[in-house]
Amino acid sequence: xxxxxxxxxxxxVCSYYSMFYIANSALYKExxxxxxxxxxKVTNEALIVLLRRKISKAMLDEFAELQGDALExxxxxxxIEPERVDLLKARGKVLVDLGRPIEVMLAYEAVxxxxxxxxxANNNIGTALRTxxxxxxxxxxxERALQSAPESKEILYNAAxxxxxxxxxxxxxxxxxxxxxxxSDYVFAHYDKAQT
Length: 196
Description:
This protein is an all-alpha fold. The protein is built from 9 helices and no strands. It has helices at 8-29, 39-80, 85-98, 101-114, 119-131, 135-148, 153-165, 169-182, 187-195.
């Protein structure tokens, strides 16, 4: 229509109704039938509420599959060069994304054997320990990380969380304050401090 001199409005209307009927079809397939009154508004809101989880799950499943592929590639490279620090760090990052804390600790321990002062490795081991419910052990690694990177808002924030998990509220607030001194706009630190 557009190229033949038709009206732009018809293109917009046709596109909208195509999307509207596809959306209604998707909702109907899920067992929801939209009535005639305020159908367009209901369809829009129902899509947002009802199908968001399905769409999110599909995206998360695809992400997990890609992370699995990434782990295979990093492991293949490590078989060739097992001591390469950048590959060991990459393996640790992928394992963090996959939510495998014990393997995260092993990967970053391998980094620490070559780079004992690595703030990244110490921080990630600390976070893995917190995931495993060991905040006191995590603090040891956060303190090591802060020796190498004392101005890291992320490490300070993580240390605050470990203090909080042990009911060391004054220490947690002090760590949140240090975090906010570095970045006063760090929303998570503001929120967690207010909850302490």
